[in-house]
Amino acid sequence: MLLDSIRSTLHDGPRFGRVRLLSSAGVRIADAAGVADAPDAADAAGGRTFAVTADKPGAPGTIALTWPLSDSRMFWKVGMRPSGPAQPADWDGRVPVSLVNSAPMGCLLDSADRNVLAFAYSYAKDEVLMRYGVDEERAMFTVVLDVARMPGASELLLTDRHGMAADVIRALSRWMGRRTDRFPMSPEALEPVFSTWYAYLQRIDADELLAQADGIRGLGCRSVFVDDGWQAFGHGRGYAGCGDWVPDTGKFPDLAACVARLRERHGLTTVLWVAPLLLGERSEAFARMAPYAPLPMDGDPDCGCRVLDPRRAVVRDHVADVCARLMRRYGIGGLKIDFLDQARAYQGRPLDDPACGDVEDVGEAMRMMLAQVRDVMLAQCDGVPIVEFRQPYSSPAIAPYSNVVRASDCPSDAATNRVRIVDERLVSTRRVVHGDMLLWHPQAGAEACAEQIMGSFFAVPQISVRPSAMSEEQRAACRYLLRVWRDHRDVLLGGGLDPVGVTDGYPLVSAYGDGGQVSAVYARGMVVDVDVTRTGRLLVLNASREPAVALRLHGDGRSVRVAGDAHDCRGSVVTTWDEPIAAADDASGGEAASGAGFLRLPAPAYGVLDLSVR
């Protein structure tokens, strides 16, 4: 149906297996055998790269793909998963992608989590409307990329390699980011965080923060992210005061002194929340900057807040100056930069009376603005600053401008947090992923705390419950699990990631590195595979209420001993093992079916098995 509505405006291009490629007039698609970097990149993804050329760069253009459904089950795309069908009808699936929202790439998966067809389009800075879904009349899947401003030359990578979805998605992400730089990594970005947001919302002040500092450090956190509420007019959950980015002196009479005390006495780095594209009508900056912010936030004229137009050079300079001033004046260790996606309001709108330095294209303007922000922050920080973006700023093309990407808000929803984290890990090859801030009720049991932390285990956890409000059981669980996380951080963040069940929300996730394996079981019926030829230490999280976990040891068929302890979520040892078992022989597949190598170990709910395999 979607293709029918635009078929008369398209012409046929080359084919890729069973895939038809089409494009609008003036846009040509051809095999890219001669394109620089294309052969190696295509080989990595197991596909083919096509050259896309436009007769009139800057004019709109369309690229379309269509292919048979096969046994497809889900269309995976970058950023947050939609709440609707996993494989929508082609009249329903649509997302505007840009530098700060998702990315022009996707992967159609079958019921075994294997790739049916995946694609990536190299032009990721400007807005592209991606329409996708099932053509119900022809049992086909269709993707249409409506490019607002076609570049003169771009590339399209297609792969129908029947590999595991996670591997294919990672390969496409590397291809998209192959020509981009990397923001330096801050060591503090790899440490657990205390976030003030869910703990306090906007009701945060220096006295409370300093009173909690020892408790925050005692949990295992090494930085404090001070969210919305520190700034003047930061109350009432509105944004009418945004724009000046100075402290609320009633809450923080001396912000620099508070930051210094947290650092020097408590060993905590401070990161401030800022939304530099927002201009509130109550701010002093409003009179000066209002001419460059004609559109209201979220299109709501009554919200009391406007969005600065990044296409204006004066706006880009203003944003960079705000970030530099915050770093310099208060001695902070970084910024949590929010609401960048509001810039999309200016896409496609004419730029009236352009001045020197103004640019027409929102994507190019955002790239220029973020480059300015990166440069001034690096210049103002003694080391490397923490720069946090959040989903949906997930494109590989935005990696040069931040070193942290956080799963988007999903308060107290450990399952959604896990899915968003793992999805983000597959595309964030150059940034560290943080989980959404973790929230649980202070009067709940220790398992409520453990469930949230375990859902965030394959990212950097951000705790957002006041230490003084936790029960002693919750504090014990938080201290223990964050200590376990830090002990295995190199594997969790830097090792190979192997998620199982992309279409089912990742009920089993494993990471591997330097002879160790960390696996988390989030649902019943999962079996943890352990290759005895490469795994000497095994950590298994029973991130569920099941009373046991199942292992399958395999490799070369030799006998091994599985020894170690089962801990409850507070760290107490509840069971100890030292058992011999014959691993299944991978060279003779029949042994696995007969039950060789299977081991079922009792495990407390939300407990941890710390094992050696020798």
UniProtKB/TrEMBL annotation:
Pfam family, one: Melibiase
Annotated CDD domains: GH36
InterPro entries assigned: Alpha-glycosidase_related, Glyco_hydro_36
Protein origin, superkingdom: Bacteria
UniProt keyword list: Glycosidase, Hydrolase
Protein name: Alpha-galactosidase
